[in-house]
Amino acid sequence: MFNATLRFDLGDDTNALRDLVHDWAQTRVRPMAQQIDADNLFPAELWSEMGALGLLGVTVPAEFGGAGMSYLAHTVAVEEIARASASVALSYGAHSNLCVNQINLNGSPAQKQAFLPKLVSGDHVGALAMSEAGAGSDVVSISLRADKRNDHYRLNGNKYWITNGPGAQTLIVYAKTDPDAGAKGITAFLIDKDMAGFSTSPHFDKLGMHGSNTAELIFDDVAVPFDNVLGAEGRGAGFLADAPVARIFRDAKLMEIGAGTSEIRRMLIGREMMGAM
Ligand SMILES: Cc1cc2nc3c(=O)[nH]c(=O)nc-3n(C[C@H](O)[C@H](O)[C@H](O)COP(=O)(O)OP(=O)(O)OC[C@H]3O[C@@H](n4cnc5c(N)ncnc54)[C@H](O)[C@@H]3O)c2cc1C
To answer: What is the pLDDT of residues 86-107, one digit of tens each?
Structure first.
């Protein structure tokens, strides 16, 4: 097994997944990491490769094409990809966790059947759009509106900083359905990029994370059927807070920092000791 810095007994399946992802990321992704950064473009072919390896639906049951594994296993996959390229890992996490896992957790059986297989195979790319130019940490202050009509909603407004936004076919988008109801007035929608009135900006030239494509999303009177509500109306803000995966995914970032710090410290201490000899 690959010698991870922190050695926990994660079980045979998760250890095997770590080996698989480590080998793929080190032989395939690491050699292209510098070029990805220079080109500021995610290599589209990696989606189908990750799909073939079973990495896009780690937490999704086999009936929808997934691996049916734990959040811990998913976190290990993110960690090993990030070891090779942080920007590939960011795009991978947005797709496999924020989008795919969210549909798996909160989607109806029909929604799962309609959306998950293509996302898990890598035929479609996924994104999740919550943030806006004026609403980051304070997500309850989003202003994208979803107004109810007879048999559909109309979405108007913008989202900002959306990972995979430029190419995603399936996007989970949070909108205000009841502006006076605070966190209870937010609803999540499943958006297809081909819906009329939906468009994206070109991908941003960010300071870092080059190659993890990020964009603004623009909703100009987009008609969204009732069937595309993810979960129930007014449950949007609850999804991220309720789901343990959000906490685990955030906290895993700290683990990455901790593991990296530990590696660097060992290197620096080692250098000091060698220099003193
Ligand atoms: C590369 C990248 C990819 C992203 N991808 C996505 C995506 O796929 N989908 C999506 O929805 N969003 C995405 N975002 C947006 C991201 O979620 C927001 O940047 C984040 O929520 C922070 O919001 P903000 O940038 O407006 O910063 P702010 O909310 O303005 O925060 C700025 C700083 O102030 C601190 N702060 C804020 N409020 C408080 C407070 N009350 N008390 C103390 N400190 C506070 C924050 O911790 C932070 O350090 C992405 C951002 C980046 C940079």
So the answer is: 999 999 999 999 999 999 999 9
